Amino acid sequence: MTAPLSPAELDDLRALAGAMIPASQAHGVPGADDAEIFAEIARGAGASADALRRLTPDLGEGPGTLALMDRETLEARLVQTWGPDAGALYALALMHYYRDDRVMTALGLEPRPPFPLGHPLEDADPALLAPVKARAPFWRPAT
Amino acid sequence: MAVESVDVVIIGAGASGAAAAWSLSDTRMHIVCLEQGDWPDPARYPSTGRDWELRAMSDFSFNPNQRRNPGDYPINEDNSPIKIANFNGVGGGTVLYAGHFPRFHPSDFRVRSLDGVGEDWPIDYTTLEPFYDENDRIMGVSGLQGDPANPPRPERMKPIPLGRAGAAVARGFNAKGWHWWPSDSTVATESHGGRAPCINLGHCLHGCAQGAKASTDITYWPLARRAGVEVRTRCRVREITVNDEGRATGVVYYDAAGVERFLGAEVVILACNGIGTPRLMLNSTSKRFPDGLANSSGLVGRNLMFHPYAHISGRFEETLDGGRGPSNGLWSQEFYETDLGRGFVRGFTYEFSRGQGPVMTALSGMGRGQLPIGAGHHEAYRRLHQKTTGMVAICEDLPELHNRVTLDPDLKDAHGIPAPRIDYTLSDNSRRMLAFAIDRASEVLKAAGAVHVHSESPLSIGGWHLMGTARMGLDPRTSVVNEWGRSHDVKNLFIIDGSVFVTSAGVNPTSTIQALALYVADAIKSRLANLFD
């Protein structure tokens, strides 16, 4: 069984999350290292612990060292060494980042589940179907 | 201890088991359905919570190996490029299907005669047509009459709205001069049979919390239970037993408490899908049937057919629907009937695929290399968010003996019952069809205004349609059941799921599976006096 992440490893994971999805003032969104978002990421990180442990030596000196790097350096190293483990951690960050209330609101989405309110969906111009309606049947009869 | 015995035991409470149970209920026979999963609880469907997209990848995943619910059994699918999708519970696959509800075409039943491949079915479209109609009535179908690609249909509820994405794709088909039509769908657009109309939750594929999408737990089962059919959940059948005369005597199963029980039955009906049914038959060995129940042809588990899928999506500049609304809503069957000039035999259906929610947009963008990390992330995400739509191509798969379900020598389920192993390779015909489908869909999307087109083929998660592994036919040497679903070898054993398909056609199979189940049930009822002759 995979051991849970240590505090130093969690610091590294948070630094990675922030390098992957940084905060943006221009878009009015926090980064994935935001306290609330990272708490969700950390909660869901169990299956990704091994990926982090394999990745850390490629990026830094050992547990806790990624958290000491500046974001641009860490991002550059991630890009250089990108592989399945980095991809797994990126997916983990994305899964939790894009359901945060602030992120959803910034995207123009209501921060709520689909049910029970649902969503509006426009109907299209019925005239779109006119050329297809004009076609003769073309299925093959067979008995 | 007294042995419990019933008139009919149905194994599996999904699309076909529910339809047959309802149809047979008017006989007033004692009917019990054994289901290894549980009743779904719509109040717990993913779309009721903020983690709806995450749960689609965990406890509501299509794939049982990923989902690992108590009702699931493992499947060794390592030797298949297409992974199995199913749902084990009352409603079966209808809980997680999209509700896309096309019918087979008349030509699909005459594949050998018309195109020289596969085999002809022992029945034809006109045989099934009244059962298609009856099934449409119970399930509740939306759509539009007058499709030139299909024979006439009964009146339907109004079609699912196209939305911005559907309209864009429709414009693309129109620009090419190719067929498209509002899909037949079991997503109710009006109140139907106590079900509320669709409110565009956009999560049809992981259980409809609104109850707008027809799944048999909310369509057939309430009717069948009211008529006296009993459903026992969390009951996993280990084997079907036979006597010395080769007649099925009943089933051995584990009940919800894990206790082994025997249920005697005059008639045994298998409705466990194209994987579960051959698995159970192969697990039911006896002196009389050492190679598996009713397997004198050697075809139980063989001729496994999926529909190889290609997914083709386009990125647009305009804002579309994202994850709002049913995933489908239109189809194109421009390339459905055989034209050998295309480089392959048989054909396919395009099923519109509307768009994705925020998490799936991100994950898809990552997978396609469209979503960088770091400073450029947010700008790139906004180029994808609600700006992607497309379609899947559902390609006809032809039966091949080497594509098969066997029993894994090592893998077992929670009750120690041997699990199925899948061996499947994609045919050259399928590869050519998929490539053609991608090229034409790319043309449609570009004509619709897509600035970038991406495709994935075959869609690895797309083993939704499980067919052919106990096929029907007139000749016991080349088929497992006869033309009305009764086993050639065991006169009181019937199969009513996708296993009996002779060929796969190029459409979602659920309406045909259910029409067949109603047809077989009708055959049973009309032959009750001499059913086992």
Average residue-wise pLDDT of chain B: 97
> How many distinct helices of chain B?
12
- Strand-pairing-aware structural class of chain A: mainly alpha
> Which outline of chain B best applies?
globular
Helix content of chain A: 40-55%
Strand content of chain B: 15-25%
Provide the succession of SSEs of chain B: EHEHHEHHHEHEEEEHEEEHHEEEHEEH
- N/C terminus separation of chain A: 60 Å
The ordered string of helix (H) and strand (E) elements of chain A is HHHHHHH
Give the largest chain-chain interface (CB within 8 Å).
A-B, 53 and 70 residues
* β-strand number of chain A: 0
Task: Give the helix level of chain B as a range of percent.
Answer: 10-25%
Number of helices of chain A: 7
Can you walk through the features of this model?
The complex is a heterodimer of chains A (143) and B (533). Chain A has one domain (7-113). Chain A is 48% helix and 0% strand. Chain A has helices at residues 7-20, 35-43, 49-59, 71-80, 84-97, 101-106, 130-133. Chain B has 533 residues and is an alpha/beta fold. Chain B has one domain (4-40, 87-530): FAD/NAD(P)-binding domain (3-Layer(bba) Sandwich). Chain B is built from 12 helices and 16 strands. Chain B has helices spanning 15-24, 52-55, 64-67, 111-115, 125-139, 163-176, 220-226, 273-283, 358-367, 377-384, 428-448, 510-526; strands spanning 4-11, 31-34, 76-79, 181-182, 230-232, 236-242, 248-254, 260-270, 309-315, 330-332, 348-353, 388-395, 404-412, 418-423, 452-456, 493-495. In chain B, strands 1, 2, 5, 6, 7, 8 and 16 form a 7-stranded mixed beta sheet that branches. A 6-stranded antiparallel beta sheet of chain B has the order 4-10-11-12-9-15, with helices on one face. A 3-stranded mixed beta sheet of chain B has the order 3-14-13. In chain B, a hairpin with a 5-residue loop joins strand 6 and strand 7. The two termini of chain B are 32 Å apart. The chains are: A mainly alpha (143), B alpha/beta (533).
